[in-house]
Amino acid sequence: MKTATGLVIVAAIALLSILLLGRPKMWAATIASDPREARAAEGALEQQIVAKEREGLDALKAGDVERFGRLTAEDAILVDTHGPASKAQVVKNVVGFRLSDYTMGEVRFLPLSTNSGLISYKIHEMGNSHGKEFAAEVYVSSIWAQRGSEWVCLFSQETGAR
Length: 162
Known about the structure:
Strand order of the largest sheet: 2-1-6-5-4-3
Radius of gyration: 18 Å
CATH class: Alpha Beta
Number of helices: 4
Strand content: 35-45%
CATH topology: Nuclear Transport Factor 2, Chain: A
Order of helices and strands: HHHEEHEEEE
Distance between the termini: 42 Å
C-alpha cells in the first residue's frame, strides 16, 4: 500500500514538473514559428512584469498604499518570515512601512503563459518599518498576471539573504 501511494505521488510530481517546465516552450512555440519572434515576445513580457514589480516598489517608496493595493490581486498570497498573508493583511501592514531606497539585481524571468510570468530577484532595500529604520537584503519571487486590462501580483515570497 505504501509503495503504491509513493508511486502515485512520484508520478504526480513528475507530471506536474513536465507540465510546468514544458509550458514556457509550448507558449513560445504558439506565439511564433520564428524563434526570434518568440524571444522578442518573451522579452516584452519580462519587461512588462519587471516594470509592474518596480511600480509596486515605487508605491512603497512614495507611501502610496492605494496604488500598492491596486497592483495586488484580491486573491493574492504573499509570504514572508511571518508566513502567508492575504492582500488585506499586507495592505494593512504596509501603512506603517516605507522604502527610502532600493535596488533590484540578479533578475530572472520565467514565462508562465502569454499574459503571466514569474520573476525572481535580489533586492537591497532601506526604509522605515513601523517607526524603525531598517536595511535588508532579500530574495523575492513574484508571479504577475494580466487580468482584463490590469496587471496584478498574484503571489510574492520574500526570503532573507545571508
